Structures are given as C-alpha cells and as structure tokens.
Amino acid sequence: GEKIYHSRNAKKTMIMGWAPYSSIGYILKMKGVARVSIEKRSTGVPLKTRVRITLKVPFQNTPNAFVPDFIKTLRDRNNFTSENWFRLPEKSANSKFSVFDVTGTLPVDMVGEVSRSPFVSSVEFKDSSL
Q1: Neighbours of 88 (CB within 10 A)
Q2: Domain boundaries, given as residue ranges, for the chain
Q3: CATH assignment of 48-125?
Q4: Whose CA is closest to 56, among 96, 13, 6?
Q5: Distance of alpha carbon 26 from its chain centroid, rounded?
Q6: pLDDT digits over 105-128, tens only?
Q7: pLDDT tens sequence across 81-108
Q8: How far apart are CA 22 and CA 37, in angstroms?
Q9: At CB < 8 A and 24+ separation, what contacts does 19-23 make?
Q10: What pTM was estimated for this model as a whole?
C-alpha cells in the first residue's frame, strides 16, 4: 500500500509491503528511501483466509492416517480450522506419493510457515476478497 503525507515543508510517501528481512540493507540504499522500519506483530485478532493446501505424502507414511495427524498439528500450532480433505487421483502407477487437498481457514501470517513444510507442495488462497 501507499500513503502520502503533506506537511508545510515536504511531501512524504510511505510505501508498505512485504520484503525479506535480508533485503532491508538493499532497500535502504535505494535512491529516495529515507527510512525502513519493521512493523511489529499486531496484538489484535489475526486476519484469516480460506486456503487449499496440497499435500504430497510418501506411501510409506500411511497417507490415510498421516493427513488427519497433519491437520491436527496445523490446528494446534497454526490455529488452522479444517473444512475438508480428500485424496486426488494418482498420477501414475510408479508414483511414490499420495496427493491430498486440504481446505480450511488459516491466519494469514501463518501461510508462510505452513508452506515450508516438506509435505506441502502448494498453498492456494480460496478467498475472493484477496
């Protein structure tokens, strides 16, 4: 987002967005950038979004037992509320994985953490408002 402030002596533009922490030094060196700050985590109720998570589960993990455990872990650690989960059709006979889609509601600030799981192949926003 962008906010423009007018004072007696100057016009200031504040640009807000997400950037990797490692890029802050680079951003500070850009022409016209006077200051960079990191927003503290809000203390209010977290913004939630509907998501579809695609899981790729190795066959040796007993997939039909693994997925409910994975959902329980998401609920306990990330405040995930599950709506539905189902197995997608197999890609080939030689496939070493079972693929599942899990839908539910997740706090927006937890999407990155969930996407880093080795079993998560994709996270898709399902909210039309985003």
Answers
A1: 12
A2: 48-125
A3: 3.30.70.260
A4: 96
A5: 24
A6: 998 888 888 988 999 999 998 776
A7: 999 998 888 666 667 788 899 999 998 8
A8: 13
A9: none
A10: 0.60
